[in-house]
Amino acid sequence: MAARILFKNAMLRSGISLRLNSLIYKRDSSYRSSPIAQDSSCYAKYEVSSSPEEWKFVERLLPLTTIPTPSDRKDLPSGWQPQTATFGKYPYFVHRTRNHMLPVYLKVSMRGTRRITQINNVDGNIWILEEAIKKYLTRVYGDKKIIATKVHEVCGHLCIHGDHVSRVNEWLLKKGL
After folding, report:
1. What is the mean pLDDT of residues 29-34?
2. What is the pLDDT of residue 160?
3. What number is the average pLDDT over the span 64-85?
4. Minimal CA–CA distance to 118: which of 60, 162, 171, 71?
5. DSSP string, 135-156
6. pLDDT-based confidence at 2, cuts 50/70/90?
7. Which residues, other chains included, contact 133 with Cβ-Cβ below 8 Å and sequence gap of 6+?
8. Alpha carbons 174 and 139: distance in angstroms, whole number
9. CA 19, CA 8: separation in Å to the nearest integer?
10. Alpha carbon distances (Å) from 146 to 53, 87, 135, 140, 172
11. Which of 35, 62, 75, 103 has its CA 20 to 30 Å from the CA of residue 93?
C-alpha cells in the first residue's frame, strides 16, 4: 500500500490527471483485498543479532511486564495521590484499579445526551457510600440538581446520573480512598 501511495504522490507532482490517479489508488480495507506478501528481499534489510550489548537497547523500548509500585509522594504534578485509607476505616472501601487509578468512569450513551458517572470496585456497605456521595453532591450543587443514583450491590457498582466524575474523584481523594 505504501508503494501505491508513493506512486500516487509522484503522479500528482508530475501533472497526470486525477481521474487516472483515482483508478490506480486502491484501499486495502480487509485481509482478502490486501496484496499478497512477496519474498523478504523486497522489504527492508535486516540482520539477526544475538549480542547482549545490542539487546539492551531493545529492552528499553519494550513495555514493562509488571506495573511498578507508585511513590508515596503527595505533591506529584499530575495530581495523583496514593490511597491512604485502609480497609475498615469506613464501612465501605473503593479499591483502586491495577494501575493505581480511581475507578470512576463517565458512561456516555443515547448519542451523548445521557451521561452516567460510574464508580466500580466498591466493597463493604455500598448503601452508606451512596448516601455519603449523595449528601456531598447535594451540598456542592444545592437544589439546582436532583442527584439520582443506582446501586448494583452484587457487582459493586454505583451509578450517578450526570457528569460528576471530577467531584466524585475529589471527594474520594479527600477521604483517602
Report:
1. 68
2. 96
3. 83
4. 162
5. HHHHHHHTTSS---EEEETTTT
6. low
7. 119, 149, 158, 160, 168, 171
8. 15
9. 11
10. 63, 31, 11, 12, 21
11. 75
